[in-house]
Amino acid sequence: MSKFSTPFFKKSPLLGAYTSGAGGTVYVSNRQAFQKLQDDIVAGAKEGDRLEGLNKANEEFDKWFAKADNPTPEEVKAKKIALGLLTPKDTK
Asked: Which DSSP symbol is given to 68?
């Protein structure tokens, strides 16, 4: 190295970059992205289970209603509450 370049090289931000490994590959943590992915999968699975349960409850209600002999509105509400299609507060 020439005697003229030495003062400039000592002030360079690249000083030691090649020997310290500072220019090597750096991995960024993607833990949060994987956690969000996992949370989204679980949320989707829970929603699918909920919809499947509602479909089964609706089918059971339809079967009951087809067999029922002119049910009263109170009986209909009670059956829907029993199947989880309504909550007591929904009927008020």
From this structure: S
Quick one: how far is CA 66 from the chain centroid?
Answer: 39
Phi, psi for residue 27 in degrees, rounded to 5: -100, 130
Q: How far apart are CA 73 and CA 29, in angstroms?
A: 58
Please check whether residue 84 is in contact with residue 57, taking contact to mean a CB–CB distance below 8 angstroms: yes
Run of H or E including 76: helix 73-83
Phi-psi region of 55 (alpha: psi -120 to 50; beta: other; left: phi over 0): alpha
pTM for this structure?
Answer: 0.54
Q: What span, in angstroms and rounded, lies between the C-alpha atoms of 27 and 4?
A: 38
> Within 10 A of 80 (CB to CB), how many other CB atoms are there?
19
- φ/ψ region of 24 (left if φ > 0, alpha if ψ in -120 to 50, else beta) reads beta
Q: What is the mean pLDDT of the chain?
A: 81
- The DSSP code for 21 is T
